[in-house]
Design a protein that fits this description.
Layout lengths: L15 H15 L11 H8 L3 H13 L3 E4 L3 E4 L15 E2 L10 H15 L2 H4 L9 H10 L14 E3 L1 H13 L6 E5 L4 H9 L3 E5 L1 E2 L2 E2 L1 H11 L3 E4 L13 H14 L2 E5 L12 H4 L4 E5 L12 E4 L5 H12 L4 H11 L4 H23 L4 E3 L5 E5 L6 H10 L2 E2 L1 E2 L13 E5 L6 H16 L8
Helix pairs in contact: 1-3, 2-3, 4-13, 6-13, 7-8, 7-12, 9-10, 14-16
C-alpha cells in the first residue's frame, strides 16, 4: 500500500519520538493507517518531518516491540495485523492459558455426591446458625492428615485456622501482622500478584526482593528490611508462581536467620503443594515468625473455597479475630464437604489421574518449546517461558491474543518500578480438549520462532 501517509507532529512539550508514536497509534485508530500498510522509510519520514532519523527509528522500534508495527530487513516497516483471530472450528472462543484449570478426573462427581450427603446429614442447627470454631474440627483433622508428611514444625489441631481459600488467608495474615500508618510488605521480585493485591487492600507499600540461583537474595533482603522497616515477607518456598522455582534448603535457613534477627514475619504460600516437600518450611524454621498457607484449589478443585493457615506460636488468636470480624467463619457445609472429599477412598485415584494429565500436557509443552529457556515442575500446571531477543512480554502476550491465545505477561507478576522481565506464563488448561490445547501451544511456538525483526536507519 501507499507510503504517502505523513503525521502532523503537534508541539506538546513531549519528546519528538513519543509524539510520533502517538501520531502513528492515532492514525491506526482512526483508520488513516490500515493493517498491512507500509510506512515511509526512516530517512524519508525524518526528512519530511524535519527531525533526525534516530528519532523516527526509536518511534518505530517502540511500536515494533509493542506489536503495533512489523519490520524486516529489506522489506520495510508495516502496520501489523493485530485483529483477534476467531476460531471458526469451535464456539469456545479464545484458547485459555491465562489461569490454571485442573482437569476433571472424577472430582466433580465426588464433590456432588459429598455435598448431597453432607446437606442431608447435617443437623438443623448447623444449617440455621453461624458456623462455630468447633464445627470445622473435621476439616482441620482432614487437613492435618493431608499434611502429615509435610515439614511444618510442631502444631496442634487448635493451631489451624480455616479461611475462604488461600487468597483470603493471605489477606487475614496481613491484617493480623501489619501495624502503623505506613506498613511495608516484601514480596519476591517475580511473584504471585495476589500478594500485592492483598497488600494494597491493607494500604501497605510493596517492595520486591531479587532472587539468585538458590532463591531470595539474603543480602538484598536484609538491606530492604533495614531500610524499609518491613514486618512481613511473602514468598512461596516450594513452588514460586509463576517461575515454578523452589528456594534451596540452605537458602531457607539463611532467610530464616535474617527474619529472626529483625523480627520479620515470613508468610509461606504453599497452594501449589503437590506432594513431597524438598526442604523444611519457614513455619518449621521460624516457629514464632513463620506462617504456612495451603488450599486444595490446585490439587482437587477451586470450588472448595477452603484455605488453611498455621500461624506461628502465639498468633492463632490474632488470626481468628481477623477471620471472625471479617466473615464470621467458613460455612459448615463447606468445611464438612472438604473433610469428606479429602478422606474419601475415591480421592487418591482421582489425584493420580489429575497429575498424570498435568504431566502429559507438560511433556507436550516441553517437547514443543524446549528449544527456548523454560521452567516447569512435575505436577505443577505452569510453564515459565523466557522470550527470545526481539520480544517484550506485553507485546508477546498481545500478539498471542491476536492469534486467539490468552496467557499472562511477566508484567502481571512484577512491580511497576521493578526491572523489566521478558517472559510469559503458560497456565495449563486441563479442561480444554486436546486438539485445541495443542493448537494453542503451536501458536506460542510460532511466535517464539518469529520474533519482530529490527530495522536499520
Amino acid at each position: 500500500m501507499s507510503t504517502n501517509w505523513q503525521p502532523l507532529l503537534e508541539k506538546t512539550g513531549r519528546a519528538k519520538y513519543r509524539a510520533l508514536v502517538d501520531c502513528i497509534n492515532k492514525g491506526i485508530a482512526e483508520g488513516a493507517l490500515e493493517a498491512g500498510q507500509k510506512l515511509p522509510p526512516v530517512r524519508e519520514l525524518a526528512f519530511r518531518l524535519d527531525i533526525t532519523p534516530g528519532t523516527v527509528a526509536r518511534a518505530y522500534s517502540i511500536l515494533v516491540e509493542d506489536g503495533i508495527l512489523t519490520a524486516g530487513v529489506g522489506r520495510g516497516t508495516y502496520v501489523a495485523d493485530i485483529s483477534p483471530v476467531t476460531d471458526t472450528s469451535s464456539s469456545e472462543g479464545m484458547i485459555d492459558f491465562f489461569s490454571p484449570r485442573i482437569p476433571n478426573m472424577g472430582q466433580e462427581v465426588l464433590i456432588r455426591d459429598v455435598v448431597k450427603k453432607v446437606a442431608s446429614e447435617l443437623p438443623s442447627n448447623a444449617l440455621m446458625q453461624y458456623p462455630k470454631r468447633e464445627s470445622n474440627l473435621p476439616a482441620r483433622k482432614a487437613f492435618m492428615a493431608w499434611m502429615r508428611d509435610a515439614p511444618l514444625g510442631h502444631y496442634e489441631l487448635d493451631d489451624i485456622v480455616i479461611t475462604h481459600g488461600g487468597q483470603n488467608a493471605i489477606l487475614h495474615v496481613m491484617q493480623a501482622v501489619l501495624r502503623g500508618n505506613d506498613p511495608v510488605v516484601l514480596v519476591d521480585e517475580v511473584s504471585f500478584s495476589g500478594f500485592r493485591k492483598a497488600a494494597e487492600l491493607c494500604r501497605a507499600k510493596v517492595v520486591g526482593v531479587p532472587w539468585d540461583g538458590e532463591g531470595p537474595d539474603p543480602q538484598a533482603l536484609e538491606k530492604l528490611v533495614q531500610s524499609t522497616g518491613a514486618t512481613l515477607y511473602c514468598t512461596s518456598a516450594e513452588v514460586n508462581n509463576p517461575t515454578t522455582r523452589a528456594t534451596s534448603a540452605r537458602r531457607r535457613r539463611e532467610i530464616a536467620s535474617i527474619a529472626l534477627r529483625h523480627g520479620l514475619h515470613v508468610l509461606d504460600d504453599d497452594c501449589y503443594h503437590t506432594g513431597r516437600h524438598s526442604a523444611e518450611s519457614y513455619r518449621a524454621l521460624l516457629p514464632e515468625l513463620g506462617w504456612y498457607i495451603s488450599s486444595p484449589s490446585k490439587l482437587v478443585s477451586p470450588s472448595l473455597r477452603v484455605g488453611f493457615t498455621i500461624p506461628p506460636k502465639g498468633w492463632v488468636g490474632e488470626m481468628l479475630r481477623s477471620v471472625q470480624f471479617s466473615h464470621f467463619g467458613v460455612s459448615t457445609i463447606l468445611t464438612e464437604a472438604f473433610a469428606s472429599v479429602m478422606t474419601s477412598p475415591r480421592l487418591p485415584a482421582i489425584i493420580d489421574k489429575v497429575q498424570a494429565k498435568i504431566n502429559a500436557d507438560l511433556r507436550y509443552v516441553v517437547n514443543q518449546l524446549g528449544g527456548y529457556p523454560i521452567r516447569w515442575r512435575s505436577n505443577v500446571p505452569l510453564v515459565w517461558v523466557e522470550l527470545p531477543t526481539g520480544w517484550r512480554a506485553p507485546a508477546f502476550a498481545q500478539a498471542a491474543e491476536a492469534r486467539g491465545v490468552e496467557m499472562k505477561s511477566a508484567d502481571e507478576f512484577t512491580l511497576r518500578e521493578g526491572r523489566a522481565v521478558h517472559a510469559v506464563r503458560i497456565a495449563l488448561n486441563g479442561q480444554m480438549d486436546q486438539e485445541r490445547f495443542e493448537k494453542g501451544v503451536r501458536i506460542v511456538r510460532s511466535l517464539l520462532d518469529n520474533p519482530p525483526r529490527s530495522f536499520t536507519t
